[in-house]
Amino acid sequence: METFTEKAVAIIKNIPAGRVMTYGQISKLAGSPRGARQVVRILHSMSKKHQLPWHRVVNIKGEIGLKDDEHFSIQKLSLEREGVEFFSSGRIDLSRFQFFPEQEE
DNA sequence: ACCCTGACCGCGT
DNA sequence: AACGCGGCCAGGG
CA A17 to CA A79: how far, in whole Å? Predict the structure, then answer.
């Protein structure tokens, strides 16, 4: 991997089931502390072609950012099936489920 | 080849 | 607490 995009894609593909990462976290690890938006772009375009676990990416608040109800449900159900628990507010407990590549679990 | 867009984040009003 | 804005990047029309 060399480019920001390639790094980001590699990181996303490296997220284990039952864990989540935030946009900002991914962009930072990929070399751009402020490039969270690029991760959004990558999820949109790359997830179609490549098979990325886009449902394991959430915003820094631990919530699903999608506005589309159907896709929102798909993501939430996918995560719950992997063992990720949500608060009634719809947020994820990042202190328990956020994944840090550095620790390599 | 240019321009718009996008599921964000953090900081300053 | 809410809102606005700038930063970062590249795919697709």
Answer: 8
Partners of A86 in beta bridges: A92
Measure, in angstroms, how far nucleotide C9 C1' is from residue A28 CA.
13
pTM of full prediction above 0.85: yes
Our separate counts of H helices and E strands in chain A read: 5, 2
Q: Is the CB of A41 under 7 A from strand C?
A: yes
DSSP E strand boundaries for A13-91: 21-22, 57-58
Contact between A10 and A1 (Cβ < 8 Å): yes
Percent over 90 (pLDDT), chain A: 82
Q: Which bases of chain C come closer than 7 Å to a protein CB?
A: 6-12
C-alpha A67/C-alpha A57 separation (Å) is 14
CA distance linking residue A90 with residue A19, whole number of Å: 16
pLDDT tens digit sequence for A80-98: 999 999 998 899 999 999 9
